[in-house]
Design brief:
single chain, Rhopdopsin 7-helix transmembrane proteins, Beta-Lactamase, Arc Repressor Mutant, subunit A, 4 strands, elongated, transcription regulation, LuxR C-terminal-related transcriptional regulator
């Protein structure tokens, strides 16, 4: 069953409104004169906001897009505040100058989180959560100190007076000096460490996206070096840094396209005799769609899980099409006018985009071929409704009933208080009585359950 992608504010109104606000803020700031030392903030504001809007349009509710958008808006406020604070005029100049100083810590924290979470909007691993929490905490303390006292005015060439306090107490200045500037250096080191950590455990698709990011960093680094050597100023490198969010946004969106091509070509690459085609299909689908879970179900009125990604802790129990269609995105697998299964996807970050919907349609067609290849489609369509089931012993019936509930041999042994070595021969006997011989093309466990359900 195909569902229409839900409309979300993040897909349309919010990114468009944010971009409009940022354009106005940067335009008003530039109208006050061209201050080269502050120009990079305006360029970064436009780049980050445009990239964030583009990512959210292509992939609604994507966390990385939200981080880009928030960073762009904060940069725009910082840019306009510094423009006014550097060349004051009119009412409220002191407050605008104030807005050009204390959000520096906020912008740095957002940038750091964007790097830590690139490209999927998630941290490299749960072990990074304390690091992200520390980044946020330090940024909050620095922002509060700067908002209440003029601890950083002298270093940003803002000539307006601090609107809250004339000077910072010695203890505040000491805390600021111990936290602020060291945190700036540590944050940049974290960027490198996070990218390296992500690369070490990343899939080929994620490494390709990281490669796009690194390719954008290279010209920015060259510009920085040339500027320092040739003109004694880092301005060229700082301006070229706007290439980095642009490359990152393209990697997030078009990395999906690379994943789509890999997903659509997985069948031609999965040629191992007796390979787990169902598992490989669900893995390819989940990777391409950034899904939380993908399940390939086989059957008509009763569905049996023949492929699950990621690997579940326990076997999934048989279910019905109605129950599967009630959750996430689903596609019925139809062969000869008869439903032979369902491909079910639980999206990871909001609803699937239109491009992802089309990709899921193509993958569902491949899933139909996989189900037929396993021989399950024929079992569902052609088995006689009154086909007799050989007589089983009470123990064999108990084992088959637990198999129908989706239990593995280990779980069956625990349920019946037996050892696994006792259960395995019983399972083999059940297969033999049902006439299910070992065959790489068929899933004997599922076929046995189908025979049980017929009873």
């Amino acid at each position: 069953m195909r569902t229409r992608p839900r409309w979300t504010p993040a897909r349309g109104v919010v990114p468009a409104a944010a971009l409009a606000v940022v354009v106005v803020l940067v335009t008003v700031g530039l109208a006050r004169g061209l201050w080269l030392d502050n120009l990079h903030n305006g360029v970064l504001a436009l780049a980050c906001t445009a990239v964030g809007g583009y990512v959210l349009h292509q992939r609604p509710a994507h966390r990385q897009g939200r981080l880009f958008l928030a960073t762009g808006v904060a940069e725009a406020v910082l840019f306009l505040g510094r423009q006014v604070g550097h060349a004051p005029g009119g009412p409220g100049s002191a407050w605008w100058g104030w807005l050009g100083v204390w959000p520096v810590a906020v912008v740095l924290a957002l940038t750091t989180l964007a790097v830590l979470c690139f490209p999927d909007g998630r941290l490299p691993s749960p072990r990074w959560r304390p690091v992200a929490g520390l980044v946020v905490a330090v940024a909050a303390v620095c922002a509060v100190l700067s908002a209440l006292w003029p601890v950083e005015y002298s270093s940003v060439d803002v000539v307006t007076a601090h609107p809250v306090a004339d000077a910072a107490p010695p203890v505040v200045q000491a805390v600021w000096s111990a936290m602020a500037h060291p945190s700036y250096v540590v944050s940049q080191v974290l960027w490198v460490v996070a990218v390296a950590a992500r690369w070490r455990t990343a899939s080929p698709g994620t490494r390709r996206q990281l490669g796009w990011l690194l390719l954008a960093v290279l010209p920015a680094g060259v510009a920085l070096l040339v500027g320092l050597v040739g003109w004694g100023s880092p301005r060229a490198g700082v301006l070229a840094a706007a290439l980095v969010p642009v490359a990152a946004g393209l990697a997030v969106v078009h990395g999906q396209h690379a994943g789509a091509r890999a997903a659509l070509s997985w069948l031609s690459r999965a040629r191992r005799p007796g390979g787990d085609l169902a598992g490989e299909l669900t893995r390819a689908t989940g990777t391409a769609l950034d899904a939380a879970r993908v399940v390939l179900w086989s059957g008509a009125d009763t569905l049996l899980a023949v492929g699950v990604w990621p690997d579940p802790d326990a076997d999934l129990a048989p279910t019905t099409p109605a129950a599967v269609h009630a959750v996430g995105e689903t596609r019925d697998l139809v062969s000869g006018g008869v439903r032979v299964g369902v491909l079910a996807v639980e999206p990871g970050d909001g609803p699937l985009s239109l491009a992802q919907q089309r990709l899921l349609d193509d993958l569902a067609a491949q899933a139909t071929l996989v189900v037929e290849h396993l021989g399950l489609a024929a079992a569902v369509r052609h088995r006689p409704a009154t086909r007799p089931v050989p007589e089983l012993t009470p123990r064999e019936r108990d084992v088959l009933a637990l198999m129908a509930r989706g239990l593995s041999n280990t779980a069956i042994a625990a349920e019946l208080h037996l050892s696994v070595k006792t259960v395995e021969p019983v399972v083999s006997t059940v297969f033999g009585k049902l006439g299910l011989q070992p065959d790489a093309r068929d899933n004997r466990r599922v076929l046995a359950v189908l025979a049980y359900l017929e009873r």
